[in-house]
Amino acid sequence: MRKAIVAAAIWVLSASMGFSQQSSITLSGGFGYAAGGDLNTSITGTSDYRRDIYGASGELLPPHSGMNFNVEFMHHFAPNFGLGMGIGFFQTSKSSGPSSFSLSTPDNITLASDYSITPKVSVVPVTLNLHYFLPVGSKGKFDLQAGFGYYVTVLDFRSQDSLYLAYFGSSLRWTEDFTFRSTRGGLGFQAGVGFELEVAPNVAVILNVFGRYASVSGFAGTYTYKESGDSAADETGSGYTFWFYDEKVDSKTYSQYDFYGEKPDWEGLSNVREGKVDLTGFGATLGLRIKF
């Protein structure tokens, strides 16, 4: 292993001899997609649960795509190689609902619900990438890149449920508004390929496509809960966790989410765990690279 490291160091030094080393900064923006993991699976499962069990109309939809921005400083230490350190921003959010139902019993008790959600995932990746440049003609070059990063991830979740209860000649209408926020981080890997086209001395336009592999869990954070209307409550606290679980009803299993301080343990649950947000996905950006 030591011999391999020494050999690599000698090769890098040899490659850089006689090469006027440069630095560059790349500013880029575009589109990003993330799988979502437990967050998205449980949103879809909760929507299916409300439809199948309560006859709800409307859907709850998971977030997947959003805008992606990145700034990378690179040191070109050899003619075809560069080492880049970058910071970026990716955000995906989706407002959906309401998932609505109205249930009545034979003795004229009615419960109605209009439930909407807005999950949002914001990510700040700090990355280190090795670049290999493959010249194409006098102005162009392919940029092959790979590396690892630390993905700082903020999970925001908001739900609103407008409820109506009628019983024995009386009725209540109220709204429950819940918010949750937690920040966690995790390691990941990314790789991509770009095409760089020089448009002026030391200035190039670069089109880049990339993929990433990263997953973040352990989201414990703060929450607010408010009731308004015929029922009133106002609560703020910390120590709530994003939980994922499967719930079996008859012969069908539904993946669902919960935000609570304690691990859900009621009957019929399985696969209960702290929920993960899977950032694995891909994207494409267009940017400007300036050498100096």
Order of helices and strands: HEHEEEEEEEEEEEE
Number of domains: 1
For the largest sheet, list the strands in their spatial order: 1-2-3-5-6-7-8-13
Assembly state here? single chain
Which spans of ≥5 residues are poorly predicted at pLDDT below 50?
4-18
Number of strands: 13
Number of helices in the DSSP assignment: 2
Distance between the termini: 36 Å
Shape: elongated
Going by CATH, the architecture would be Beta Barrel
Percent helix:
10-25%
Largest sheet: 8 strands, antiparallel, barrel
Mean residue pLDDT: 93
CATH topology: Lipocalin
**Strand fraction band?**
over 45%
* Global structural class: mainly beta
The level 1 CATH classification is Mainly Beta
Tell me what the structure shows.
- Helix content is 11%, strand content 72%.
- The protein has a single domain, classed as Lipocalin, CATH 2.40.128.
- 29% of the residues are buried.
- Strand 7 and strand 8 form a beta hairpin.
Offer a few descriptive terms.
11% helix, 292 residues, 2 helices, mainly beta, Lipocalin, 72% strand, elongated, single chain, eight-stranded antiparallel beta barrel
